[in-house]
Amino acid sequence: MVEEVKTSPTAARKHSLSGRSTPRRLDEVEGNIEDRLPLSLGEFARVLGGGVVPGSVVLIGGDPGIGKSTLLLQVALEMARQAVVLYVSGEESERQIKMRALRLLRQDDEAQPGEEQPAGDIPEHLYLVTETNLEMILEHVAAVNPSLLIIDSIQTTYLPELESSAGSVSQVRDCASRLREMAKSGGAAVFLIGHVTKEGAIAGPRVLEHIVDTVLYLEGDRFQSYRLLRSVKNRFGATSEVGVFEMRERGMIEVTNPSEAFLAERMINAPGSAIAVTMEGTRPLLVEVQGLTSPTSFGNPRRTANGVDFNRLLLITAVLSRRVGLHLGEQDIFVNVVGGLTVDEPAADLSIAAAIASSFRNLPVRADTILIGEVGLSGELRMVRQMPARLHEAASLGFKTAIVPRRMQHGEAWTQGIQVIEVRSLRQALDHCLVKDDAAGM
Ligand SMILES: Nc1ncnc2c1ncn2[C@@H]1O[C@H](COP(=O)(O)OP(=O)(O)OP(=O)(O)O)[C@@H](O)[C@H]1O
Ligand SMILES: [Mg+2]
Fold it and tell me: Which ligand is nearest to the CA of 103?
């Protein structure tokens, strides 16, 4: 239950979106498809749908310390080379932000932390203010007239006319609405940083996600350096698009070939490792799924899922026991997705099953093979979407064989450059991918 204080009618005055509300012919409205501001941070631009749309409001959520401020300061530094940017912080002092900016701008990793930076490195169109009162922020916006406004964070801004404290439901909602009005009438793009709750949703009312045009989540394991920027709502681009970054001292560095990065530390021919191809939005991603079985010493066998859905693991374990005949009833089973990634797609089922079976039988999965397919309760393999994109990515990374579900309709030929083995059941798939002698492999 959240208390919402009723406000006086003057405070709740109506604002119209564009300042003028006369019907106009659509063909007379200004605007082009290509009106986006380009961004050379390609991964970020891709998640947005190709660049920053003027007048759009983008909400970026993420766990504490994941790198939200870092990413947006990087965007600010870059955008300020072509347009005026106003960075409003309610969380850090100007000095702290300057220190971070200098760190992000440092060109070579070898430079000593104490070394002086030439001041010319900081673009002159980047303005900074530490302010939490939204009335004041809007005044600053009117004075500076930025093309891009960054608010860090929406939970720290408040409207003095409302009686509730900053971060409360009504404050967050009304502040976001006011910022949206400003964006839609003035044309400035607005990036809002949002805190997330313990459950992982953006703190504040659910309506916040309706008010804004785009909702992005920055996720990742805090102990690992990879960060995924995922779009969950986008009025100007595809959703569930992902950008991959690596958190370094110089900030968020784009990972342009994430599959290669995630497979870099793989041990070839070790039992209990299988390669899955998942789709993150429109992008195929190769990930290593690891499985480990070990005899249960006492009590009930344990099942531990890291990066895959727990219930999915139980289902696959049951299918392996009943349909393939592996005696997993007295085995502890651990499954882990390498790189701190989370794979929630059924297409990874086959690789999870193969990783477990591979560890249980102590036979490695063929090193040059990728596995794609959803496992059904009868032990059958089911087709998944976007096969050509997945196979193409695997082929381009040098994989030679793909084990996939048998097609019911024979349409076009499979992707060139990779041998495709179609199988009907999980049992057949395991027969093909587990190496029985030491001869095979990459
Ligand atoms: N000198 C440094 N070298 C490498 N990484 C650093 C350095 N300083 C900070 N970081 C990384 O930056 C992260 C903090 O980033 P940032 O402040 O952007 O997070 P945030 O999401 O804005 O957090 P908050 O929600 O607390 O505002 C730290 O977790 C740390 O990993
Ligand atoms: Mg921050």
Answer: 1
